[in-house]
Design a protein that fits this description.
Chain lengths: 301, 442
């Protein structure tokens, strides 16, 4: 089934400390980032404060980077020209501002093997503070539920998907927990409970909320080095190249023949596999479509 | 060796294979092994038993496929051979990553159970219902808590001539299991439910020229409600509580329905539900709907994460009400279009996403944009697009509660919305609730 991916509400801390990703079983399955608590995340919904933004592209071809703060952590966001609506929305926003974002999660592995997680927004809108408060509540609730489920799963004493399913876990949940425990080992719950404490303190300013943590528990996640996204830039170049090839080969307005694109891409040093990934991305981003099985055509805006 | 000398070995084989292979075939195989290939009778017996999948232990577990029964599969087998009968077979052309592909899928069974299967490279494979096949180097996966068998490029399908596989009746329809109505999914086979009849009607229909009566209605328990239908009159009356044994589930567009066939039994039972009957609207998590398929009168609460193409001002054919483009109806040609307003939203509650079709009346109510205003805006700007943008601006990231019937297809669940409201959660009260919950368990 190609059901739309769920937009997870989760805090930046949990997302940014993930380093594992996994592709689903079926051929068309998307890639998921697996968190230490077993959430398999392809898409997120975030509401918080856009604290900074910077266009490191040009006016014509913007490439916006920004940070959206939740309670204690920040989401790193990237908006390119393939998200034209999100790009023009972020261009008009004045920081700081409350925003809500729906977007896809992307990972990037640095040369030293560290993995950075960022969000590529499909939608960015300015919101009022009540949307943020509601989001913090859902993210806290969802985090608490995952902690409880993880505790239950550890009590099952077997991390296998099958045993977990037999113990009443939903199949995707069992899969996520199995992957998380194998990849990261037993999670330390304290940073998460501390996040919930901070979230509740923000939502209930009049109450005394103390779950008994020293105030400095839990580190903030590694920050993305804004200039080092080499592979992502390469990828951007390849996308541009493919788009150019499609435009050039589309001589009769019926689209560019795939085999021709493949030949030209090969000549430009882009392998067939890379081409397939890139054309999938371009289709996902609404840049190109398939008039028929053998052709690709650009969508003009 | 002549037949007489082979007889003890033949008898040994027959004891194991008698239900699967004809005597003549066993003798011919034995002769082939012993007389043509000159192997010892013991080795021949082993070889023949293995060939027909009747040898328990495997001498080469690591390299070659194991022969297994469907009932033994765990869903994690990477390479397994199965001797099966095809119960239902369908050849389909699909598109995978832009390339056309022919697959065969359906249901297979053996003595131990049934499973759905897919042959991914089905172009040159022929399978027919009722025939017996060897599925070679198949792999098994779990899907919806059931084992699924796949034959990929490494695998193969061979017709097993002369082999017999008995699929017991009960495994085709599966054991009737007690089910809560709210938990019924389209992939269930036989179920037994207990619930209260909340509506009952008779309809006269014509089936293949024969007049027939269908008895149908709605039954509910404390978890949900479902439509039932029967060809036989079970005398069901509104308000009575019944236990329906051995009904079977069929889905229509992802909405499960309870069918009461010939094997179905109905008994009147004491009503234990009281006021606890889910005959009104069911509030559900979207993730649960994605898993179960669809249903009637479902309510969901979530955030609008997307407004999809086809939202905003649209033209409809005055004859058939189809949505049309540039005054051209695919059924009625050039027509004078009737303008309409609608939204196709994606609602997400953090557990799953559902598409929702929202009609003009509800669109006007939710957005404050009326059809008249939308037409005015489109006229002033010379395009319908600003209408869509305006609707998106007012709806994105809004929290809505939507109620309606939900259908499902390959792209997930879709609701035809009957009632829609903007909802505001009492964040403070909910946060206090969560606080108490966390404090209690620390």
């Amino acid at each position: 089934m190609n059901a739309r991916e769920t937009a997870w509400r989760l805090f930046a801390g949990e997302l940014n400390s993930s380093s594992a990703s996994v592709k689903g079983n079926e051929e068309m399955s998307p890639t998921y980032v697996v968190t230490r608590l077993g959430a398999m995340v392809n898409r997120v919904m975030v509401a918080g404060v856009l604290t900074e933004k910077e266009n490191i592209g040009s006016e014509d071809e913007p490439l916006w980077r920004g940070r959206v703060q939740d309670v204690g952590g920040s989401f790193f966001i990237n908006v390119g020209k393939f998200q034209p609506e999100a790009a023009s929305a972020i261009a008009e926003l004045e920081v700081p501002v409350f925003v809500a974002i729906v977007g896809k999660v992307k990972t990037y592995t640095a040369d030293d093997g560290r993995v950075f997680v960022s969000v590529r927004p499909e939608t960015i809108v300015q919101v009022q503070e009540d949307v943020r408060r509601q989001w913090i509540l859902s993210a806290a609730r969802s985090l608490w539920d995952r902690l409880i489920r993880m505790k239950k799963a550890i009590a099952v004493n077997s991390t296998s998907e099958k045993d977990l399913t037999a113990a009443g876990f939903a199949p995707e949940e069992a899969k996520g927990i199995d992957l998380a425990l194998n990849r990261y080992g037993m999670p330390d719950s304290s940073p998460y409970v501390k996040t919930i404490q901070d979230a509740l303190r923000m939502l209930l300013p009049g109450s005394v909320i103390d779950f008994g943590f020293p105030e400095d528990v839990g580190g903030s996640p590694d920050e993305i080095d804004m200039d080092s996204e080499q592979s992502s830039a390469d990828r951007q170049d390849m996308e541009d190249t493919i788009l150019r090839i499609i435009t050039e080969l589309d001589t009769d307005g019926r689209g560019a023949p795939r085999d021709e694109i493949e030949r030209r891409a090969e000549a430009e040093g882009i392998s067939a596999t890379e081409l397939e990934e890139i054309s999938d991305t371009l289709m996902d981003n609404g840049m190109v479509y398939e008039p028929d099985l053998k052709r690709l055509k650009r969508i003009d805006y | 060796m002549n037949e007489q000398e082979l007889t003890p070995h033949f008898e040994e084989l027959k004891r194991v294979l008698k239900d699967k292979v004809d005597d003549e075939r066993i003798m011919n195989e034995l002769k082939k092994y012993v007389n043509e290939f000159h192997v010892t009778p013991q080795a021949a017996v082993r070889g023949i038993l293995r060939k027909f999948g009747a040898l328990e232990e495997s001498p080469f577990r690591s390299s070659s496929s194991l022969v297994k029964k469907i009932g033994e599969l765990t869903g994690s087998e990477a390479s397994v051979d199965l001797l099966v009968r095809a119960i239902f077979v369908e050849k389909k052309d699909i598109t995978v990553k832009g390339s056309p592909k022919t697959i065969i899928s359906g249901l297979i069974g053996d003595e131990t159970g049934t499973a759905s299967f897919t042959v991914w490279e089905g172009k040159n494979v022929e399978m027919e219902k009722g025939s017996v096949y060897w599925l070679r180097s198949a792999y098994a996966k779990m899907w919806n808590e059931k084992v699924q068998i796949n034959i990929g490029a490494r695998g193969g399908v061979e017709k097993a001539e002369g082999m017999r596989v008995d699929v017991p009746d009960r495994s085709i329809s599966m054991e009737s299991s007690e089910a809560k109505i709210g938990e019924i999914t389209g992939s269930m086979g036989n179920v037994t439910v207990t619930g209260r009849i909340i509506s009952a009607e008779e309809r006269n229909v014509t089936v293949k020229g024969e007049p027939k009566t269908v008895y149908s209605g709605m039954i509910a328990d404390d978890t949900g409600k479902i439509q039932y239908s029967a060809w036989n009159d079970f005398g069901l009356k509104e308000g009575e509580t019944v236990r329906i044994k051995n009904a079977y589930i069929r889905s229509w567009k992802g909405i499960p329905q309870l069918n009461m066939g010939d094997r179905c039994e109905v008994s009147r039972v004491d009503d234990t539900f009281g006021n606890d009957i889910a005959d009104t609207v069911n509030t559900k998590k979207i993730g649960d709907i994605v898993r179960t398929g669809g249903g009637l009168d479902i309510k969901v609460v979530g955030t609008v994460v997307d407004m999809r193409r086809g939202s905003g001002l649209i033209e409809r054919c005055p004859e058939c009400n189809r949505s049309i483009i540039n005054g051209e109806c695919q059924a009625h040609g050039r027509v004078e279009p009737v303008m309409d307003l609608r939204m196709k939203l994606t609602l997400d509650d953090g557990t799953g996403a559902i598409s929702a079709i929202i009609n003009r009346e509800l669109t006007e109510k939710l957005t404050g944009v009326t059809l008249g205003m939308a037409e005015g805006l489109a006229k002033a700007r010379g395009s319908m697009e600003p209408v869509e943008r305006e609707l998106a601006r007012t709806m994105l990231i809004r929290r809505l509660s939507l109620t309606g019937n939900v259908m499902s297809d390959d792209y997930g669940p879709m609701m035809i919305v009957r009632a829609a409201d903007v909802v505001k959660e009492d964040v403070t009260a909910e946060a206090e609730k969560l606080l108490r919950e966390v404090e209690a368990s620390l």
